[in-house]
Amino acid sequence: MTTDFAATRAQFLLPEGIIYLDGNSLGPLPRAAAARVASCVTEEWGKMLIRGWNAAGWMDQPSRLGTRIGRLIGAEPGSVVLGDTLSIKVYQALASALDMVPGRRVILSDTGNFPSDLYMAEGLCRTLGPDYRLVTVAPEEVAGAITEEVAVLMLTEVDYRTGRKHDMAALTAAAHAKGALAIWDLAHSAGALPVDLAGAGADFAVGCTYKYLNSGPGGPAFIYVAPRHQDAARPALSGWLGHAEPFAFDLHYRPGTGVERMRVGTPPILQLAALEASLDIWDQVDMAALRTRSIALCDAFIAGVEASCPDLALASPRNAAERGSQVSFRHAQGYAIMQALIAEGVIGDFRAPDILRFGFTPLYTSDADVSQAVAILSQIMASGSWDRPEFHARAKVT
Ligand SMILES: *Cc1c(COP(=O)(O)O)cnc(C)c1O
């Protein structure tokens, strides 16, 4: 399978005059998505009304699209299902995994993890009782911190700030060697690089679709459960759509078969229609080719910025093998510099306290985008034009 990245780029609506380097936070609009969502609204919802659940196949969308995402993350067919938000799926995977390791009370994670994942773990520990605790260590100390006390190793494969990538296969094996389970958050992996969940032996994985998978703001999350666990995992959030027979309306919960039991409530059909349009593009993509292209784009950006912006310090691993598909630089005035860049049409984002973050998404990032972004950034740094009052004003979302 070869991938024509000029052809995939043509399938996105990219506003004129914008260089978009933030698809790691919110993917752009696939051209076909507007019509696909409009047709879901007028032809399905509008004309079929409630019959759409059967006639338009709405009820099976979470598993059907889950299996298409599964190809991108090395999941066995039928082991991924969509729904809810990523924070909720983190909680569900954690609660299910803890339940499968009786007698152990420790969740191990790292200090580079995304705060919501850590908050969900803290909240779950409080609910379960005083014996449960979340332990966090520096990312490079994770392997050494996996003891026989650890019930669950919960990590985000690619660090949202620096892009540093964990070795999923090695850490999963280390967790298993100590009798712990491993949960992987693929928020910055799914659609960013090849992932091999089955090959790594991951127990659970979760991720979102609005970043590299381009489902639009508020698009649902996904959860993976390894086939060997699917009939043992107790869905902590036991909603009616994860029941064996939702329309039997039993008074007691009986989990459904396979990963379907991780469903909770009514799926977001309009958002899934947008995701479907994006997956039509993803279906054409070879993940090895994506990785090669991603590394070329990231390496070119690093080389360009380092050659022309001596005040910016690389915050991402220099070695591409240790990185996801994003590049970050540190600067004490990173917020203002990013606002100046955005004003010039180069959209990246800022992560406190000092990270300028740039996502490289081969589906639509071109070589010209990289060289123009470098040129504009170096001009802003050389002229000091970022130091205007309007660039220091903080908005709600950074
Ligand atoms: C983006 C991201 C989230 C966001 O969670 P939502 O519930 O979708 O808002 C959570 N965890 C990680 C690691 C992320 O990168």
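qc> The pocket of pyridoxal-5'-phosphate is lined by residues 85-87, 114, 116-117, 156, 160, 185, 187-188, 208, 221 (CB under 6 Å).
qc> done
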